[in-house]
Amino acid sequence: MSGAEKEVVVMTVPSTRRAFFGFAAGTIGALVATRVPVIAAPVRPASSARSFAQETLAGPFTLPLLDYATSALEPHIDQLTMEIHHGKHHQAYIDNLNKVVAEHPEIGELSVWEVLTDLTIVPEAVRPAVRNNLGGHVNHTIYWELMTPKSLEPSQALVDAITRDFGSIEQMQAAVNEAGLKRFGSGWAWVVSNSGTLSVTSTPNQDNPVMDGAGFPIIGIDVWEHAYYLKYQNKRADYLTAWWNLINWRTVDQLYSLAQEASATPTA
Ligand code: MN3
Fold first, then answer.
1. How many C-beta neighbours within 10 Å does residue 34 have?
2. 183 alpha carbon – ligand 1 mean position (Å)
3. What percent of the chain has pLDDT over 70?
4. What's the pLDDT score for residue 51?
């Protein structure tokens, strides 16, 4: 298995995490400003990763709408899981996040990606709450957009990149599934882009891969039990296998483009 080999790729850590994707210096913010005139709730499907470059911690944050019915991902993900996961779990991250930002207006001007990329810019006292709840909000927003009941094909550029870095889509899926299975307890399995190079990683809890400089997420699978337990119980492997039936390649394409733009932008 290529897991260990691929992990070597993610060791290409930038000089400063904050400058990694250029999010901090306003580069992505400026890029976003020229292309997306209005950044406001409700978050539109497949555009939220981009809008997070400009959305600040002023709050309040709102639960993003799903682009499909909670029953639409059946039989791979059941309706009750979706209702609880989206309506209760994600909402709880948002509620907790809103409490933090309301109590700490001094962090209100920082952008979402800026903070996730360098958590040390928020006061130590609120850092764990921001890490868990902002991470939870961003990760779940991306996760919802990465799923679709519609069958879509990845772009040729993305297929080429996946083939170059993994050998095939199937090999990439196997590496992600392995990372998800190996994640002890709760966390996520990811495909990340680091200056255009794709690799697999996983994070604990609600950490996002930008937090440790692993790269910008283009695919993320929630492997917390709440994501699958009602239907799959202890069979996380079956959930991971089924998940790929739902992947929204259009979102992956967009996240890959965003990662490319960010890494191509000179950092200040
Ligand atoms: Mn979850």
1. 7
2. 14
3. 81
4. 87
**Residue 81 C-alpha to ligand 1 middle, in angstroms?**
10
**What are φ and ψ of residue 192, in 5° steps?**
-120, 155
Distance 39 CA to ligand 1 centre (A): 25
81: alpha, beta or left, given left = phi > 0 and alpha = psi -120 to 50? alpha
CA dist 148 and 216 (Å) reads 21
pLDDT tens figures, 99-150? 999 999 999 999 999 999 999 999 999 999 999 999 999 999 999 999 999 9
| d(CA 25, ligand 1 centre) in Å | 30
Ion ligand 1 nearby residues (CB, 5 A): 222, 224
Query: Does residue 169 sit in the same domain as residue 232?
Result: yes
pLDDT at 158 over 80: yes
> What residues make up the domain containing 87?
5-68+78-145
The verdict on residue 150 lying in a domain is: no
Could you tell me the pTM of the whole model?
Answer: 0.84
Average pLDDT over all residues of the chain: 85
Based on the fold, state whether residues 174 and 109 are members of the same structural domain: no
Contacts of 163 (CB under 8 A, 6+ apart): 169
